[in-house]
Specification:
This protein has a single domain (9-115), classed as Muramoyl-pentapeptide Carboxypeptidase, domain 2, CATH 3.30.1380.10. Helix content is 35%, strand content 18%. The chain has helices spanning 9-22, 35-40, 65-78, 109-115, and strands spanning 26-30, 54-59, 82-86, 96-100. Strands 1-2-4-3 form a 4-stranded antiparallel β-sheet, with helices on one face. By secondary structure, the protein is of the alpha+beta class. The radius of gyration is 14 Å and the shape is globular. The termini are far apart.
Amino acid sequence: MAERTPMTPAEFDAVCRLIWRQFPDLSESSGYRSQLKNVQVGSSDASKHRLGMGRDFYVADMNIRLSILERARDFARSLGLWTELEIYPNAEWLDHLHVQGLAPGPVPDWWLDKYGI
């Protein structure tokens, strides 16, 4: 597994493209979010989507969804991403894989100074 260190926006984008190529059944359901959109979807102020460093992936075919999401999660982790698999048993259309190029919690000051919005 790749060491998990904060990625640059370009590194994060490149790794996400590798995931898409490896798993063509994935669709991106969320990437960068404005502050307003972040509030509308009920996400936290610390969401990495606000920095363009978080993405959510979805699989439309319910017959393969969980299998693809689990394999994509493992692949994303091997590339150094932080991941979270969201499974909602009573609302299957919300199932998705969240990946981010920064660790959960506060973003390092050096990263914000160089790349932050």
